[in-house]
Amino acid sequence: MLVAITREVSSSIGRCELTHLPREPIDVPRAREQHRRYEQCLREAGCQLLSLPAEEELPDAVFVEDAAIVFDELAILTRPGAASRRTEPAAIGKTLRRYRKVYEIQHPATLDGGDVLRIGRTLYVGATARSNPAAVEQLRNLLTPLGYCIKYVPVHGCLHLKSAVTQVREDLLLVNRTWVDVERFDRMAWIDVDPSEPPAANALWIGSAVIYPANFPATQRRLEEQGVAVLAVDVSELQKAEAGVTCCSLLFQDAV
């Protein structure tokens, strides 16, 4: 069974970290309703939902993907690039220890889970303001003995690697090629985001479907034209916090 860890939206989300977007007021009740609909999409995609309570003093804690990366063999708690988020992984770790042996990224490394794209046994790690070379070295030390390959990928103009590229099928990526060089991803075909929708590359692939933001209809049509089944969800309030659909859940198999 595929487990999806989520965390409820904090009332302090309006104080979230921002890098590329201007700050706008976030309607917290609406953001919570959108998050509940997102969780319903996870259920419809076949996930067993494990919803954690809000961390009211941590504005970004709803974005649980950034706090950890989980493999069949182990889990790794990150050390987020934003200092205000450094306590988030410990809370996620309490839950993950029920399922995996847990390791931690250590100072001076910084790593956000949104910068880690796993394709098979290869991890692509975004070279961004949030994730540094020291983290790549620590990932190599932990994962190379288990047969994983780690590649550091330059990213420009966006927050995370998964803002620029995500996997939408076994052999297919969705990409904004102005933000990342698609040739870095070996043997993969790709769909370009519609030019009118630069932030549209973030999609969450689960089994036979993709959870996808409802406000990118032109790119959604491109996905559907390639046979990708889309579960569209409105996450417009969460997007004001630079959120994508990948960052609001942490996915892993509960038995391996």
Q: Can you put this structure into words, describing what you see?
A:
With 256 residues, this protein is of the alpha/beta class. It has one domain (2-7, 27-253): L-arginine/glycine Amidinotransferase, Chain A (5-stranded Propeller), CATH 3.75.10.10. The chain is built from six helices and 15 strands. A three-stranded mixed beta sheet has the order 2-1-15, covered by helices on one side. Strands 3-4-5 form a three-stranded mixed beta sheet, covered by helices on one side. Strands 6-7-8 form a three-stranded mixed beta sheet, covered by helices on one side. The chain is globular, with a radius of gyration of 17 Å.
Quick synopsis:
This protein is an alpha/beta fold.
- The beta-strand count equals 15
- Report the portion of residues in β strands: 25-35%
User: Helix proportion of residues, in percent?
Assistant: 10-25%
The 3D shape can be described as globular
Number of domains: 1
Instruction: Indicate the mean pLDDT.
Output: 97
Major sheet attributes:
3 strands, mixed
- Give the class-level CATH name: Alpha Beta
Q: Write the H/E string, N to C.
A: EHEEEHEEEHEHEEEEEHEHE
Please identify, by name, the CATH architecture: 5-stranded Propeller
CATH topology: L-arginine/glycine Amidinotransferase, Chain A
Gyration radius, rounded: 17 Å
Distance, first to last CA: 10 Å
Q: Biggest sheet: strands side by side, in what order?
A: 2-1-15
The structural class is alpha/beta
Number of helices: 6
